[in-house]
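Sequence only, no structure available. Ideas?
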Amino acid sequence: MNILVTGSAGFLGRNLVENLKTIRDGKNAARPNLRIDEIYEYSRSSTPEQLDEWCARADFVFHLAGVSRPKDPAEFQTGNVGLASALLDTLKKHKNNCPVMLSSSVQAALVGRFGVSEYGLSKRGEEELFFRHGEETGAAVYVYRFPNLAGKWVRPNHNSAVGSFCSSIANDLPITVRDPEVELELLFVEDLLEELYDCLEGHPRRCAYPDANAVIDGVVYDGLTPRPAEDGAYCYAAVTHKATLGRIAECLRAFHDQPRPLLMPRMAPGSFEKKLYSMYLSYLPKEKAAFSLPMHADDRGSFTELFKTVDHGQVSVNISRPGATRGQHWHNSKWEIFVVVSGHGLIRERKLGTDEVIEFEVSGEKLQAVRILPGYAHSIVNLSETDPLVTVMWASEQFDPNRPDTFAEPV
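Reply:
I predicted one. Tokens follow.
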């Protein structure tokens, strides 16, 4: 399959192209039914001759190109409707009736909070061209009305408040939130890519857009919300997240501060916070990609906390000098896991009130996770006379100096 991607240098285009390459090159086995041969990357630097050639060879077209903030409003028509028309005419010229996908916008609905704008009118014009193309040629047409797109590589200070916030906070610049209660619907690129793969495989999620104030099955529609429908003219991405500007700013500030307390925010799988944190990290400048950690050192070695979590404890690294013994304490309810990643050592645990000792000889040559049991005095000894012993330690809770649950006791 040969795939043409217009707007390949833009936010969505770059993400799509780079991920299509992983499938083409056999690095991504999540879509075994997709076989990709060529990816044609059409951008502003491409020539009309290239577009002509690629339209002749394409087996699928993702039309992502367009303008959203031109200097001259007339560019909405030339950059959106005009380019879409040229693309479809070129496909017709070559009698290529391959499936075509259009990246449209909720603003094309021309209702609600967006009202009637030049941008919305141009996107509605594109939609009409694509639907007409499908009727005239029989080609499969997939039209998506996207809400606010988010994720890595969104261009800041352009048409994305979230991208602008991420960039500013990552670079220690102020942000202005005029109304923290304004709610955005965000479609993150990782979720959108899954929808586009479905589209490429020929089974997108279909929907319709009921008119504003229409009541269907007890639901009042606003003209902007998709209603799943197998025979719907439009397609939609099922996974989106709604968050206020205030909530977004709050999260980003917590992400910015994370290296100081080492506390990782709570991020459930697939959550808004997890996806937003990933987006935020993509804006970090080089000098923030690494940060120093406070090391607590003495004549036995050093102990350094790596990061802490709200509800899953903390991870630390312990470096023991040759012959040194660390630990010699016990916990009531806290439990730990020790993994020696370099060196040769001995972990010893003794059940309180008994002489019962269990021992584990450990080495970085053969990684092993050793549970440190509650109610057992424990220690770790570096058995080497020359090399340090490096141990990664996970504890079930953050260390609280006011309630340490750590009591000195020799093994």
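Residues 108 and 124 are 5 Å apart (CA to CA).
Hope that gets you unstuck.
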